[in-house]
C-alpha cells in the first residue's frame, strides 16, 4: 500500500516563513549584543535603514516606515537616547530638523550586514549553498517587486 505525504495546509507556509525570519532576527540580535549593541531591537534596524546615509526628517521617516510622525518621533527619541541617531539642523532649510545616524548607528548597521552574511553561511552549511540560493530565487519569484520596502512596522501595526 502506497503511503501519501500528509497534507500541507496553506496556513503552514506563512508560519514557517515567519519562523525562519524570526530565527534569523533572533540570531542577529544575539550576536549584535555580543558585539556591543545589546539595546538594538528589530524595529531599530528598519528605522536606521529608513534614516539612510543622508538623514531625513521625522515626517519623512514616518512616511517611509508607514507610521505616524508621532510614532516615528518616539522611536527617534529612543534611538537618540541610545546614541544611534542625532537631531541636527538641516543645512538646506533652517526651519527643518534632520534625523541622522551617528557613528554608533553606522556601526550597528555595518555589523548587522556582516552578521547576516555569517548567518546565511550557517544556513548554507546546514542546507547546502544550492538550497539556500534556490530558496532565495524562489522567494524572489513569488514576492512583490518592491520587496525591500521599509514600511513593515506600519504594516504590522494595521
What's the level 1 CATH class? Answer: Mainly Alpha
The count of DSSP E runs of length 2 or more, i.e. the number of strands, is 2
Strand order of the largest sheet: 1-2
The CATH architecture can be named as Orthogonal Bundle
Q: Which descriptors would you attach to this protein?
A:
WH_DNA-bd_sf, 2 strands, MarR/SlyA-like, 7 helices, mainly alpha, two-stranded antiparallel sheet, elongated, MarR family winged helix-turn-helix transcriptional regulator, 158 residues, Arc Repressor Mutant, subunit A, WH-like_DNA-bd_sf
Q: What's the structural blueprint in terms of helices and strands?
A:
Blueprint: H1 12-34, H2 42-51, H3 58-65, H4 69-81, E1 85-90, E2 93-101, H5 103-127, H6 129-142, H7 152-157
Antiparallel strand pairs: 1-2
Helix pairs in contact: 1-5, 3-4, 5-6
Domain HTH marR-type: 33-131
InterPro entries: HTH_MarR-typ, MarR/SlyA-like, WH-like_DNA-bd_sf, WH_DNA-bd_sf
Organism: Micromonospora rubida
Overview of the molecule:
The chain has about 160 residues and is mostly helical. The chain has a single domain, classed as Winged helix-like DNA-binding domain superfamily/Winged helix DNA-binding domain (Arc Repressor Mutant, subunit A), CATH 1.10.10. Helix content is about 65%, strand content about 10%. The chain is built from 7 helices and 2 strands. It has helices at about 10-35, 40-50, 60-65, 70-80, 105-125, 130-140, 150-155, and strands at about 85-90, 95-100. A two-stranded antiparallel sheet has the order 1-2. The protein is elongated and about 70 Å long. The mean pLDDT is about 90. InterPro entries: HTH_MarR-typ, MarR/SlyA-like, WH-like_DNA-bd_sf, WH_DNA-bd_sf. It comes from Micromonospora rubida. This is MarR family winged helix-turn-helix transcriptional regulator. It holds the Pfam family MarR_2.
Amino acid at each position: 500500500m502506497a503511503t501519501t505525504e500528509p497534507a500541507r495546509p496553506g496556513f503552514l507556509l506563512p508560519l514557517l516563513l515567519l519562523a525562519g525570519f524570526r530565527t534569523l532576527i533572533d540570531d542577529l540580535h544575539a550576536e549584535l549584543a555580543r558585539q556591543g549593541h545589546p539595546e538594538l531591537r528589530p524595529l531599530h534596524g528598519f528605522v536606521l535603514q529608513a534614516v539612510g546615509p543622508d538623514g531625513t526628517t521625522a515626517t519623512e521617516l514616518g512616511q517611509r516606515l508607514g507610521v505616524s510622525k508621532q510614532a516615528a518621533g518616539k522611536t527617534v527619541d529612543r534611538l537618540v537616547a541610545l546614541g544611534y541617531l542625532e537631531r541636527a539642523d538641516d543645512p538646506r532649510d533652517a526651519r527643518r530638523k534632520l534625523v541622522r545616524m551617528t557613528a554608533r548607528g553606522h556601526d550597528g548597521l555595518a555589523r548587522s550586514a556582516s552578521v547576516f552574511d555569517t548567518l546565511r553561511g550557517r544556513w548554507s552549511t546546514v542546507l547546502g549553498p544550492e538550497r539556500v540560493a534556490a530558496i532565495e530565487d524562489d522567494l524572489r519569484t513569488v514576492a512583490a517587486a518592491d520587496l525591500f520596502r521599509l514600511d513593515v512596522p506600519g504594516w504590522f501595526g494595521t
